[in-house]
Write a structure and sequence with these properties.
Elements: H1 8-19, H2 31-41, E1 48-52, E2 60-66, E3 70-76, E4 96-97, E5 100-102, H3 106-125, E6 133-139, H4 150-157, E7 163-166, E8 179-183, E9 185-194, E10 198-199, H5 211-229, E11 234-243, E12 249-250, E13 253-262, H6 268-286, E14 290-294, E15 305-306, H7 312-325, E16 331-334, H8 340-345, E17 350-351, E18 368-370, H9 371-391
Helix pairs in contact: 1-2, 1-3, 1-9, 3-9, 5-6, 7-9
């Protein structure tokens, strides 16, 4: 087994440096964070570094070393925006307090970027690395659907991969709760409601349909029909409400944005047909004119994904988990979507989310990851790659 302990000090400082290179998406600019990773790996002998970019602001750093069966390690470098929740620390400061690293992206996903980079360096530098080709990609654009990130990379490189591991938190409430062998997808749509814009002081004197009021009347009908008609394994979330201009104006338009989290086994045509039927029935029952519009790619449909538990990559992950964490992993389905679905669509057996942190800490104020979890994740990635190459790593 490669000696990972001598490199563990790198993972904390690299995480902090990545947090200090802001990369919120939107708007989307991962150049600074990619430079941090590239600087860390630039002096490692035998490593090829290259940039793949469909947009110069959205670079993907691809690092490769070795020859033989190829295992890909993927971690996204973008984050969600800071948001308006109150932070007790600088969200881009990378503060280290009481064994925790704080900042936007600490859990999702810069701690994992750092752990994968350190694991990659450890494996490449080790004289004990089994034969095989290791590919590490710090990719852009996960938070906005992957057009400039994993989709662009997969078009160029998926044919080279025998298996892949995508980095996402391995727990919901706490770290390393599950080994995710599947992930949910997303189906996003909007309900659009029309009214008649006019002076609000005359709303009770003239026929001035209020688009926001109409939406409030329509929503209970929608919720009831969605609950009755959407398939098992589909969870509906209204995520954004729009409408109106200002005081004094009857709203002429309103909309509610919705997403469905879709479990493996559900097909796009089935889910979207059920959603359309539910909306049609709710609109007829309420008498309120409205329409359902599916979002364009990528949010209109991000497919759920899964990997068979008898795949070599799963065997390797289970072995590495047991040796690193001291217990057999419980298998599960990641509740969100990950970049793994794109690789799976290209036929690559992919673990959709293995990494430090917990999902409950992501996307909110005072996001953080513990030093212990960063170190554990680094050990886990080294052990996983070692076990994969030692197994046989052949494409089944």
């Amino acid at each position: 087994m490669p000696d990972v302990e001598r490199r563990l000090g790198d993972v904390v400082e690299l995480t902090r440096a990545l947090i200090r290179a802001p990369s919120p998406s939107p708007p989307g600019d991962e150049r600074a964070v990619v430079e941090v990773v590239r600087d860390y790996l630039a002096d490692v002998p035998g490593v090829e570094l290259r940039i793949l970019a469909a947009d110069p602001l959205r670079p993907n750093l691809v690092c490769t070393a070795g020859s033989g069966p190829t295992l890909g390690l993927f971690a996204h470098t973008d984050t969600v925006p800071v948001g308006d929740d109150g932070w007790s620390v600088d969200p881009f400061g990378g503060a280290l307090r009481d064994g925790r690293v704080y900042g936007r992206g600490a859990t999702d996903n810069k701690g994992a970027v750092a752990a994968m980079a350190v694991a990659f360096r450890t494996l490449v530098e080790s004289d004990q690395r089994p034969e095989g080709r290791l590919l590490f990609c710090a990719n852009a654009d996960e938070e906005q659907g992957g057009r400039y990130g994993i989709a662009h990379v997969a078009e160029a490189l998926a044919h080279e991969l025998d298996a892949a591991v995508v980095a996402e938190p391995s727990g919901i409430d706490d770290s390393f709760e599950r080994l995710w062998v599947a992930s949910r997808g997303v189906c996003a749509f909007r309900i659009l409601v029309e009214g008649t814009q006019g002076h609000s002081s005359l709303a009770d004197h003239h026929d001035a349909p209020n688009a926001v009021g109409r939406l409030f009347e329509l929503w209970p009908h929608l919720r009831e029909r969605f609950q009755e008609l959407i398939p098992d394994g589909v969870v509906l979330n209204p995520v954004r409400l729009l409408g109106g201009v200002d005081y004094g104006i009857v709203p002429g338009q309103s909309a509610v944005w919705c997403e469905c989290r879709v479990a493996p086994g559900n097909e796009r045509e089935q889910v979207q047909a059920r959603l359309e039927r539910a909306a049609d029935e709710a609109i007829r029952a309420s008498g309120i004119p409205a329409k359902l519009v599916f979002e364009p790619a990528p949010y209109g449909w991000i497919a759920p994904s899964s990997v068979a538990v008898d795949q070599p990559i799963v065997r390797a992950a289970r072995s590495a988990w047991a040796s690193t964490l001291g217990a057999e992993p419980r298998l599960g389905t990641f509740p969100g979507g990950t970049d793994g679905w794109v690789l799976a669509q290209h036929g690559v057996p992919t673990l959709p989310g293995v990494g430090p942190g917990a999902l409950m800490r992501a996307h909110g104020a005072d996001e953080h990851v513990t030093v212990a979890d960063l170190e554990t994740a680094t050990r886990l990635y080294v052990a996983l790659a070692t076990a994969y190459f030692a197994d046989h790593g052949e494409r089944p």
